[in-house]
Design goal:
The chain is built from four helices and no strands. It is mainly α. Helix 1 packs antiparallel against helix 2 and helix 2 packs antiparallel against helix 3.
């Protein structure tokens, strides 16, 4: 988990550096890349804890893939919402629909995880 904290610090500092630059297309892209990395890495320890506490443990590999995927989905959701807000296209209904899409996708992926007990 130490690497997630280090990546989060690096991504937040990269985002601060990008914010200092004049606004153009490249800086917008760099901002969203840095935002994705910062949000995903920042949420990773919390999501790992919640999965360890409330998720059913199948194997270490499944556990690691699950919390990494969930933190990446969280980062992607925030980036999409931020981009839509920047375009002035975001509404509460659209944000809820996007959240439902990410939640349903994750629910589908969790139900498709292979059981380790041989059944």
């Amino acid at each position: 988990m130490l690497w997630a904290i280090l990546v989060a610090l690096l991504a937040w500092s990269a985002m601060w550096s990008v914010i200092q630059l004049p606004v153009n297309t490249l800086t917008k892209v760099l901002f969203f890349v840095a935002l994705f990395g910062a949000i995903s890495a920042t949420l990773m320890p919390a999501i790992a804890y919640l999965n360890a506490r409330f998720g059913r443990f199948q194997s270490k590999r499944v556990y690691q893939v699950r919390f990494a995927r969930q933190s990446l989905f969280s980062g992607a959701f925030i980036v999409v919402v931020a981009w839509l807000q920047m375009q002035r296209s975001l509404s509460p209904t659209l944000a809820l629909i996007l959240m439902a899409v990410f939640i349903l996708t994750e629910t589908f992926l969790i139900t498709r995880e292979a059981p380790t007990d041989g059944s």
